[in-house]
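Notes from the 1:1 (GR / supervisor)

We went over the backlog. Supervisor wanted to see one worked example end to end before approving the batch request, so GR pasted a single chain during the call. The sequence is below; no edits were made to it. Supervisor asked that the structure be written out right there so they could see what the output format looks like.
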Amino acid sequence: MTLDVKFVESQFPALRGREFVYLDNAGGSLVLQGVADRVSEYLLTTSVQHGATYSKSQQAMEKVAAAQQSVMRLINASRPEEVIMGPSTTALLRILGIAIGETLSPGDEIIVSISEHESNYGPWELLKRKGVKIVQWTIEPDSFRLDPQRLASLMTDRTKLVCCTHASNILGTINPIREFADIAHAHGAKICVDAVAYAPHRLVDVRALDVDYYVFSFYKLYGPHHAVLYGRYDDLVALPGQNHFFIEPTRTPYKFQPGNVNYELSFGCIGINEYLVELGGRGGKVHKDERAAMGEAFDLISTQEEVVCRRLLDFLNAVPSVKIIGEKTADARLRVPTVSFTVKNLNSAKIVSAIDQYNIGIRYGDFYARRLAEHIDLEKDGVVRVSMVHYNTTEEIDRLVERLAPLLS
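Structure output shown during the call:
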């Protein structure tokens, strides 16, 4: 079965006509019609205060509870109380960092990978003020990969947490999270994973990964500017709350949502599941449950993404002046279709500026992975990044290649 491109196009209003080639999806994907419809529905029908006894308030609460259940199923959490929604990955990790920091003592250690977006580095770096030691886990110089053996060598009896990305927003490399989790747990530590660059491309299963904390943003996954942090229920109950003092310790996720969650954006996220289920069922195959259908959808997604990624990498690999930063193959087992590169004697900003005039959206920079950019000695304008998802086509890549070719030659 192949991806039903016409159906996909029909679900994203911004794709109609395809006059603009959008290849900056790692910065934020296009939004599903079903997501926008649900946000609108909530605002126009149930935009009232929660916690009241009148029926409209009860309906509003039911909608947000349904959204929490929907996200629980999307990531395969054990219960809805493990799903903390909030404004962004950055904000949720900052809240988690404060909460975990209150449980640590001077001399405790946190291992943080160099591949991180600053969202999953900065909150832990701040804990140095409390005497916590931050241990940097560097990538291998030739492969740009995070090595499990290197992680094991960094673990000590004072290691309390390992922080890493599921897929780098520059490198595109998929990391073996379950292997990392096993190493952390074998030493009595927990693991916190940033999946912002991974979740749009593969079906998440927090239980199979055996992660303790897992976070990503819905606006990279065809949804609204909203995010989710998963945590094991017992761990969340044990952590100090970051809301008002009278919020009970067992009231998760509310104890980690100061000012409360955004109701309409939460409700909009249900549209993501609905899209994936319908996409997965378009081949006529009967699925036993929602996750089976979503799994089929992501199989189709990753297959399509590998095709478009290969089209681009075949071109880039053939240009002598190009250096690909990350995996050079399009193999979907190894990478997501976020491709970064530099060009010898050619500034990244100038390349992107030259492409802008052709109604093609790509980007340059360090993408808030500043420590990684400095570690691998990127110039101040960083890499050129082309980030694709399943609604991109080989025809769109050909349009980009047509304009890149004379520049890079």
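Supervisor's comment: The longest strand covers residues 159-165.
Batch request approved.
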